[in-house]
Design a protein that fits this description.
Transcobalamin-2; transport; Cobalamin_Transport; 430 residues; cobalamin binding; 12% strand; 2 domains; cobalt transport; binds cobalamin
């Protein structure tokens, strides 16, 4: 071990002892490889494909995409402003495109802050008002007695509060109060099980509010809720070290990082999580751009809360596009595709080449007739909205499972089924 290695090891051990969550630096090459995966996505410049999370992730990371970054932000601004403010547009189809959701608007505001801009001027004020209105609507949907649900999710509710907070925009105590209640009574944050991502996002929003002192009357409740969120996340650590699962660990670490919780064995838990993350990175588990954009800040010791006062001058390594190595295989595999929740139930073996994604399996099944599906694009990739003509309703979704009963941790574009596997698509409530 070199001097630096020894120093990092010592810091790591001290972190473990001191109950501080520290994430010692990881191999630069690994970080660069992750960053490179974002580059091709920066060439997709239509509103449907633009992803402000990519921009935020890069700006908080130790890597950069050079001139492409500034251009991407420019296109983000044009598209989001046109779409959200209904500005004059040349493209006749633009009116038909879905408007960015509350969460997407929030991520756009985070992207502006990541470039050290404060939202302002006439247009900026209108965007802030829109986000505030979205949150007010969601607050009403939850209701004063917390019996209802947000139209979107508590995750997006937290994201909305965080975005306004980093721009130093004040929200009414009652808006923040709905999220505080949800963390205090965490059954509201479950999607079948505790959603670590949602608790982490809420915790990040509260941490920003605590630092900025924007809701002084709720200061004590906010401080307690941050601690509750951290404790829930620590409790959700798996034997391998992930918080929740591998893909919720980045946001979980954004919340835990640099925090201090005496007596909670936080230092040890974070070092274990870092080791689990490294193993997953080496296994190639991080394919999804959205998740990569949430992980890159962590590998640079940063979180979304740093957007309160971002360091826009920090040196970052310029990413070089990776050389594509497309390995085509002739080997065929067979995947059993099953949809029991339709009449008559569907069950068919589908033959695809090894390494194909679940989306390839669905496409093939559709070509063979007897199977239909539809997707909607999202920041995480194609989201399965309808199967055999049956569309998921409000608070329902098409769950992806590996038989007999294991929910997949990846979406249809990223998950690659193995030979002989049975994949079930199940319409469930959440
Ligand atoms: C809320 C949520 C859900 C809700 C979404 C409904 C709703 N009205 O919000 C429900 C519970 C239905 C859901 C379902 C699934 N989810 Co989900 N979800 C989230 C969560 C917590 C927040 C998403 C969000 O609002 N983002 C912010 C907004 C602004 O972005 P957006 O793109 O506009 O949001 C939409 C998409 O994210 C989409 N969506 C939600 N989950 C997923 C997953 C995939 C793979 C895709 C393509 C889209 C998608 O729903 C959002 C609302 O429309 C994220 C956590 C995270 N770290 O991102 C996990 C997360 C994205 N989900 C995940 C997974 C695995 C799934 C499922 C595939 C689980 C399964 N086995 O079926 C399914 C999707 C199946 C399908 N039909 O394609 C993983 C993805 C990991 C990865 N490798 O990419 C995450 C990161 C959670 C985790 N830690 O495991 N999810």
């Amino acid at each position: 071990m070199g001097h630096l290695g020894a120093l990092l090891f010592l810091l790591g051990s001290l972190g473990a002892l001191a109950d501080i969550c520290e994430i010692p630096e990881v191999d630069r090459k690994l970080v660069e490889r992750l960053g490179q995966r974002l580059l091709p996505w920066m060439d997709w410049l239509s509103l449907e494909h633009l992803n402000p999370s990519i921009y935020v992730g890069l700006r908080l990371s130790s890597v950069q995409a050079g001139a492409r970054e500034a251009f991407y932000l420019h296109i983000l601004k044009l598209n989001y402003q046109q779409s959200l403010l209904g500005l004059a547009i040349n493209d006749d189809n633009s009116n038909n495109k879905a408007k960015p959701s509350m969460g997407q608007l929030a991520l756009y505001l985070l992207a502006l802050r990541a470039n050290c801009e404060f939202v302002g001027g006439h247009k900026g004020d209108r965007l802030v008002s829109q986000l505030k209105r979205f949150l007010e609507d969601e607050k009403r949907a939850i209701g004063p007695h917390h019996k209802g649900h947000p139209h979107t999710s508590y995750y997006q509710y937290g994201l909305g509060i965080l975005a306004l907070c980093v721009h130093q925009k004040r929200l009414h105590d009652s808006v923040v109060g709905r999220l505080l209640y949800a963390v205090e009574h965490s059954h509201h944050l479950r999607h079948g099980h505790l959603s670590v991502d949602t608790v982490a996002m809420a915790g990040l929003a509260f941490t920003c509010l605590e630092h900025s002192n924007l809701n002084p009357n709720q200061r004590h409740r906010i401080t307690v809720a941050i601690r509750t969120a951290r404790e829930k996340i620590l409790k959700a650590q798996t034997p391998e070290g992930h918080f929740g699962n591998v893909y919720s660990t980045p946001l979980a670490l954004q919340l835990l990082m640099n925090s201090f919780m005496p007596g909670a064995k936080l230092g040890t838990a974070c070092l274990k999580a870092r080791a689990a993350l490294l193993a997953s990175m080496q296994d190639g588990a991080f394919k999804n751009v959205l998740i990569i954009s949430q992980l890159l800040p962590v590998l640079n010791g940063k979180s979304y809360v740093d957007l309160i006062s971002p360091d826009c001058e920090a040196p970052r390594v310029l990413l070089q596009p990776a050389l594509e190595t497309v390995s085509q295989t002739q080997e065929l595999i067979s995947v059993m595709l099953k949809v029991p929740s339709v009449l008559p139930p569907y069950r068919h073996p589908i033959s695809v080449s090894a390494g194909s994604s679940l989306e390839d399996v669905l496409k093939k099944a559709q070509e063979l007739a007897g199977f239909t599906y539809a997707t909607q694009n999202s920041l995480s990739g194609p989201y399965l909205t309808s199967v055999m003509g049956k569309e998921a309703g409000a608070r329902e979704f098409w769950q992806l499972l590996r038989a007999p009963n294991t929910p997949l941790l990846q979406g249809i574009a990223d998950y690659a089924p193995k030979d002989g596997e049975t994949i079930e698509l199940r319409l469930v409530s959440w």
